[in-house]
Amino acid sequence: MKQLNVGILGLGTVGGGTYKVLTRNAEEISRRTGVNIKVTHVADRNIEMAKAQVAADVVVTDDAFSVVNHPSVDVVVELIGGYTVSKALLLAAIANKKHVVTANKALIAVHGNEIFSAASANNVIVAFEAAVAGGIPIIKALREGLGANHVEWVAGIINGTTNFILTEMREKGLSYQDVIGEAQRLGYAEADPTFDVEGIDAAHKLTIMSAIAFGMPMKFDEAYTEGITRLEQVDIQYAEELGYRVKLLGITKRTDDGVELRVHPTLIPEKRLIANVNGAMNAVVVKGDAVGPTLYYGAGAGAEPTASSVVADLMDVARLIDASSAQRVPYLAFQPDQVKDLPVLPIDQVKSAYYLRLRASDKPGVLAEVTKILGDRAISIDAMMQKEPEENETEADIVILTHITVEENMNAAIAAIEALSAITGKVVRIRMEELAK
Fold first, then answer.
1. Residue ranges of domains in the chain, CATH in brackets
2. What per-residue confidence (pLDDT) applies to 387?
3. Using CA atoms, how far apart are residues 357 and 207, in angstroms rounded to an integer?
4. Is 205 an annotated catalytic residue?
């Protein structure tokens, strides 16, 4: 049986999981591929830790470039993360005509265009299923399973940390600050959770899905990102009363004017399946013109769920290693000469419905002023809820749900509402999506 020699760079959580899955399921994998996929080299800064995890015949080193340059290694699996060293290693592997598998969403989202160009020039495969949504095979679904469709939009809960935090806030009535410490204690959030809670991690993943869905270059720098740190528990509660759940969504849509590429807290009707994805789980909805909305759900992180995707990529490489480039699925699903530089819409040109919460004086005429401001900007109201003031208070919360409008119109309306003498403080605005059609 033919053997495929693999070098793993980084034997941390995912790297260790990858080695375990490859070893434990070796017979099943060879039955499926007709190839013996064997880890022959591992690079990790902690050599003793790495040696304790692998078989005695595996070469272990702290020099990742020695693995990338080793003539017997057929495929390099990059699980180091980051932008700099990992990029240099991948480009070196590609220059050496080695196929590459990576779980590095930041690297692909930011430098994917350069990496794919180099891979194409060297006729090697770059596989990155594990870069998005851990064990969920969403990249394969977009590139292959939904290949007959004109993809209209993709929306996903693609960061488990923020989904865990929002679930805890809703179910336990806690504030963001109350939950973030617990998330860190349980290992769901890093010591510095910025990439997760500010939406950057989700934007990396969304950038990749958008490029594959619409056949466009990676445009991470143009993605709009808004995190969950400013979300208040009261808005999660009010959303629940109105039949909605708040989730941090990555949303990309193809419109006549360009592509929407945005990550932000979003109200979703509680009857939608994705609204009921809780804890650290991930889910992605893809809407195709032929198939309609399809949902992909599962573990978005973790050693073996992510390893599942890494090993699936290795199996694809094993099957296609001798195929010509014309027989392989293109990196971005579309033929390279058909990838189009579609414009990304600035956030103020995006169309959405909105949840608004304003703190207003409890006196006649205030609602009339607010509704006139919205009406003057062609913003229609879908629902409204006014809370009774607390005892001895003269102000109350007003919650308004609007129909779809252009964001720049909403920005102008909010500025005008905040200027009213009867309004205290800032208007809270959360975008809403139906995710139905």
1. 2-135+303-338 (3.40.50.720), 138-299 (3.30.360.10), 350-432 (3.30.70.260)
2. 86
3. 30
4. yes
